[in-house]
Amino acid sequence: MANQNLQELFQKITDKGFTKASGFKIRDFQEGKVTLEVTPKEELAQFLGYVHAGVVTGLADHAAGAAYASVLSDSRSCMTIELKINFMKPAQGEMLAAEATVISAGNTIGVVQSNVYGETGDVRSLCATALITLRAVTIKA
Q: What residue numbers bound the domain in which 103 lies?
């Protein structure tokens, strides 16, 4: 699938459900590397005021799925089958950004590294890193 068509499809997917409610947006979309962002808001916070770990995990996972899907053939997409995430710091800042890079792009299984940063102005702070394994699936028309 052409990169532009895939990006448009991914934007449609992102504009639904949890990802829409959370406010996820595409910042950069390249073959094998995708960056998503979300602006923290009160509805996404946990009890201490930081962005909830579930939102951070969802951001990392969604970026990883897009990155792996970007290297698959036209009729294929993917689903997460395993996710391991480490949280280093509370998720905070004016923006959170997940940078996902494909590490292994097998025909059936892909592995993606997804780092989540808190950003305020030009200052970035790594708050989480995830290793995500995905299975390629055929899209039914």
A: 3-138
